[in-house]
Amino acid sequence: MGSKYPSETARFWRTKFKALLCCLQSPSPIDYKLQDSACSSTHHPTDPSSFRRVYKHDVFLSFRGTDTRNNFTDHLYHNLIRKGVFAFKDNERLQKGEPISSQLLQAIKDSRVSIIVFSRDYASSTWCLDEMATIAQCKKEFGQKVFSVFFDVDPSDVRKQSGVYKDAFALHTERFQQDPGKVERWKRAMTGLANSAGWDVRDKPEFTEIDKIIQKVIKKLDHRFSGSADDLVGIQPCVKELEQVLKINPKDEDVRVLGIWGMGGIGKTTLASVLYDKISYMFDAHCFIEDVSRSYRDGSAIAIQRQILRRTLEEQDLDKYSPSEIAGIIRNRLSSKEVLIVLDNVDEIEQLEQLAINPKLLGRGSRMIITTRDEHILKSYGVDAIHKVSLLNSSDALELFARKALKSDCPSSSTCMKLTPIILEYAQGLPLAIKVVGSSLYNRNASQWRDYLERLKKYPDKRVTNVLQTSFDALENEDKEIFLHIACFFRGEREEYVKRILDVCGLHPHIGIQVLKERSLITIKNQEFHMHDMLQELGKKLVRERYPEEPAFWSRLWLYSDFESALMSAETGTNNVKAIVLDQKKEMSECRQLRIDGLSKLRDLKLLILYHKNFSGSLDFLSPNLQYLAWHGYPFPSLPSFQPYSRLVELNLPYSNVKRLWEGNKNIPHLEKVDLSYSKDLIETPSFEWNPNLKRLDFTGCTNLTHVHPSIGLLKQLAYLSLENCSSLLSLNLGDGCNLSSLRVLCLSGCTNLKKSPDFTGLSNLEYLDLENCTSLPTVHESIGSLAMLKFLSLRGCIIIYMPMEVNNMISLQTLDLSRCLRLRYPLGQISMSSSYLESLICLDLGTCHFIENIPDSIGELSCLERLNLEESQCSHLPDTIKQLSRLAYLNLGDCLYLERLPELPFDSAPSGGRYFQTVSASRNHRSGLYVITYNKVMKKNFNYMPAALSWFARLVEQPCHFRSGFDIIIPQNKSSGIPVWYFNHQFKGGSAVRVVDYDDADDNWLGFSFCVTFDHVTCDSSSDDPRCPYLSFESEHTEEYFDMWSSLLLSFPYNQKRTYYHSFHMTHAWIIYISRVHCHFVKTGARIRFKGCKGLKLHQWGLRMVFKQDIEELKRWSQSKDNRTNTPGFHSSRLVVDEYVHQAGSSSSESETKIKLPYNWLVSDEDENEKMEAKAKEDNLSNLGLV
Predict the structure, then answer these.
(1) Is-catalytic flag, 350?
(2) How far is 467 from 462, CA to CA, in rounded Å?
(3) Per-residue pLDDT reduced to its tens digit, 1071-1082
(4) Rounded distance, CA 113 to CA 115, Å?
(5) Rounded to 5 degrees, what angle do the CA atoms 571, 573, 577 make?
(6) How far apart are CA 477 and CA 515, in angstroms?
(7) Which residues contact 865 (CB under 8 A, 6 or more apart)?
(8) CA 918, CA 1173: separation in Å to the nearest integer?
(9) Phi-psi region at 385: left, alpha or beta (left = phi > 0; alpha = psi -120 to 50)
(10) Which of 608-617, 975-984, 986-995, 1121-1130 reaches the highest mean pLDDT?
């Protein structure tokens, strides 16, 4: 409330009050005396609310643990909690490590009420007496209410310290001879408290006495709702969380509005009422308006406004005021008070707007709480925070059920309790359902429990469904249809798939689904639709409601048995069915052959999804209202030949028996998608001349398809066309007037008989072209140069000899895959390597192109190139211009038999690399690195690879944007050279394992760890089938993580019998691995580290090093020096302590076999995950073209 006194006075009292709070909050001896000017004879006018104390607890329980902790006090505490009273009991709340005295004393000061349970040994505990004295002082200083309970002692003995208490105080008097005043203070406090109101519970029913105590406490606390509550489970942590959200303790002077949101029956009102009881005392005025929605239906906004004024301002004569005058009173009077207003069950934004309560105009420190099923109301009103109420966890659900069904906090071991898991699974944590079912089962036997459960499966309890149906009834018609579709058909299905179907059905799902989410009727997790079981049952109940035993009258069918019944009834002319979606996962084995004739009679059918093919009879007709048709395994050779399919949007018949979809031209004006994938009887496509809105065509796996109608070239809106694995297709004629200007994906991979590529003229926006394994394709049409937007081109496995010069024009191309083009001779000789062409190329794959002998110098102008694969090429040398490729992070020269020397590699790394990882979602598993695997004696003799390898190593480490999942390097290495000890300063024998004991973790310049091993093959062992051989192993007690060599690189070594004619050229190789700091979890887990190899592989030695920023700088300086082959650099020394374990041959094979083997566990940061998701979204955008 704004002060009407001078600011100097306000500041004076604010300072004094802060001093008082500091005094209250600081630990002090038990005999402290609070000093404050508020207690002096001098009084200043001030705002009473400014001295309002804020408490953490409702009740503090003082008791002697050995006497009552596990009986009376424990029962009292738990019954207080059940009533929503926040009680402090030391063994429940104390934080470990805190001095018990100070924390207990502070808890007393932070409580509104104290209850002292006097028992036989209470007086023997100095802790109890200190608590009691503090309680007495808080009663005196702050007016704290205190109740005394006499458990097993005479109240007179307590008041007089006689009887069982006499000996205890005699001992205290002797013990505290140096401080006799302490014992006297205890006696005075005990006498005073024992004389106050209390209960002598000796020889009385415990439950009855506890109930009396609790009702008295609730009355004193002025809790409005706690008196009637008896089943509050798991609610107190939520209330504490909401207190923090509301910024109650310490109190924030800003006005805050909290929304509590959740599905019907989840406990929003209960949570709000407990929160209200807990905090309402902190405000000048407060009110809780129950069921605002009903109040609006029964009256109007003014009725609620009057309730607010009566409860907050105690105004009684309000009927004489008009609505505008009432609104004015609310605005003017509430602006000067610190108020708490709770509005329960608001279901329309207008209900809030008409109340004329502007939160910004309420008094400082005010709070509003709104409960609703509709999140959109809260967002529209502009609340400060929204709390979504969660379902009960399994433990709380069990406790609540036990209270209702067994009248106990704990489940019994009765036969009935064996059915409890089934009941709780049915209720799925919904408090209302648990209460209703539990109450219904109380005092019933096991047979009755079973019958009740069977009945619930067919007929859900109306006390639950009526509450849930309130949310459904408030929906618009289209939103109701979406809800029923999801409840009957699409729970657990992918979001985009369902949205597409709903969109096809004209239900506007983008807004409708959001409405259902906001009203807590559905949730979306992992891009899948989820719904509470009872909401799903509600939806199905609404569909069956009027005719529960007559499926033909239902609007939707989802069970095969109901579908069969509806087909039989349709023969007689009875049907109301609008949607049929039979679950492919259910009843498949039970399906008997069914006559399909009745389907022709379902004239109102709009949606049909079937996964069955066991039908007899004929299909002469399909509903003219049909909008979405998906029939997996459609058993007929064509669609019914009637006209028209005027509303059909999607036609999906994968794995069908269709030979010709339809004869001649068929006018389907709204048709957007056709899927005939894996329809192996399909011979030719229909004419598309009358289907101008087609956006997606999928003929994947139609192995007998020989002819695609040229009218396909007229489909201006076609975005996606797949003819993958159409192995009988000879050519693709897109017609003379081709205008596929919207086509972005064309997949022709696996068309093994395709002898001529299509003319690409007219495909101006094509982005993805896949011609992989078109093994009869000798060349590519020169019009490919017109594809200025093309980003991906694969000719992998084709028999082409050269690429047309027009490829130069593809300035957007990012990936060019020509691998396994075994006849290709001039892939680059015909391609200009000018920077004005192929300027976007990121990945160039020429692996296994056996006839490529030269790479042109102009390759150095591909400034964006990051990955270059030349594995198994016939090149004798690489151009020196390769050193200009500053973004190059992957270079594969594996098995380049004729390569005589390695050129100078790039020295500097561009800081803007890593685009590859942003375009390929699986790229985290695609390592960066340098791979020179060769058995060429000339190359071995002429070159020392280690300086080049370490230079490559340094440039990647310097710019981490060039790799994700670590990187590695493989190079030939002379046995005599070994591993350079000047860099890998910790070296071990090939079979040794080590464990990091200590390391320099505090050095900010530490970048990661590097490892190196030298190995060769002494025999060719084809018996080894370990795909990880060789690999770097990190073994813990039960698991083994491994960093392995790429499988494609393993094929370059002779032990896989691929290069048996090189066995005489045994050559040692070195394998260098880098793992960056954030991924080096092995330094903390103590994992044993070693390199492992299979039979026939000999590990010579290995080493490791902690990598520091200074090392990289020194490596770069050394790499640039002219005498780097003779001089060794000096490196940063670091603290690294390792334990070595010498491996005995054959000793650990059985041990290793028992461990769970896992790929190395790379830490995935939020940034990495976002990058992956963005790349995945781009891929999905292409693969889903025509679907969304």
Answers:
(1) no
(2) 8
(3) 999 999 999 999
(4) 7
(5) 95
(6) 12
(7) 841, 842, 843, 844, 859, 885, 887, 888
(8) 9
(9) beta
(10) 986-995
Q: Cα-flanking dihedrals φ and ψ of residue 1104, to 5°?
A: -145, 165
Which residue in the block uniquely carries the two structure tokens 């592989």? 1097
pLDDT in tens, 754-774: 999 999 999 999 999 999 999
* Lookup: tokens for 938: 């000339």
Query: Per the residue annotation, which of 131, 338, 375, 537 is the catalytic one?
Result: 131
Q: What string of DSSP letters covers 5-34?
A: S-HHHHHHHHHHHHHHHHHHHS---TT---
Secondary structure class of 126 (helix, strand, coil): helix
Tell me the residue length of the chain: 1188
What average pLDDT score do residues 1003-1027 get? 75
Half-sphere exposure of 105 (CA within 13 A, CB side): 21
Cβ(613)–Cβ(594) under 8 Å? no
Residue 628: pLDDT band (50, 70, 90) is very high
DSSP 905: P
| DSSP percent split of the chain into helix, strand, coil, nearest 5 | 35, 15, 45
pLDDT at 976: 64
Q: How far is CA 760 from CA 784, 787, 809, in A?
A: 6, 7, 13
Give CA–CA dist 1064/478, Å, rounded.
Answer: 76
CA distance 609 to 594: 16
pTM for the complete prediction? 0.78
- First and final C-alpha spacing in the chain: 56
Stretch among 634-638, 734-738, 833-837 having the lowest mean pLDDT: 833-837
Q: What percent of the chain has pLDDT over 70?
A: 86
The residues, ordered by sequence, that sit 6+ positions from 538 with a Cβ below 8 Å of its Cβ are 460, 465, 468, 469, 472, 487
Q: What is the pLDDT of residues 443-453, one digit of tens each?
A: 888 888 888 88
Residues 816 and 841: beta-carbon distance below 8 Å:
yes
CA dist list (Å): 784 to 107, 734, 809: 80, 14, 9
Buried b / exposed e over 667-698, threshold 16 CB at 10 Å, is ebeebbbbbbbbbeebeebbbbbebeebbbbb
Please tell me the distance from the alpha carbon of residue 128 to that of residue 190, in angstroms, as a whole number.
11
CA 405 to CA 1174: how far, in whole Å? 51
Cα angle value 119/120/126 (rounded, 5°): 80
Query: Is 711's pLDDT higher than 70?
Result: yes
Burial-class residue 1055 by CB neighbours within 10 Å (0-12, 13-18, 19+).
Answer: buried
CA dihedral 234, 240, 243, 245 (to 10 degrees): -90
Query: What is the per-residue pLDDT for 8?
Result: 43
Name the more confident of 227 and 221: 221
Instruction: Count CB atoms within 10 A of the CB of residue 64.
Output: 20
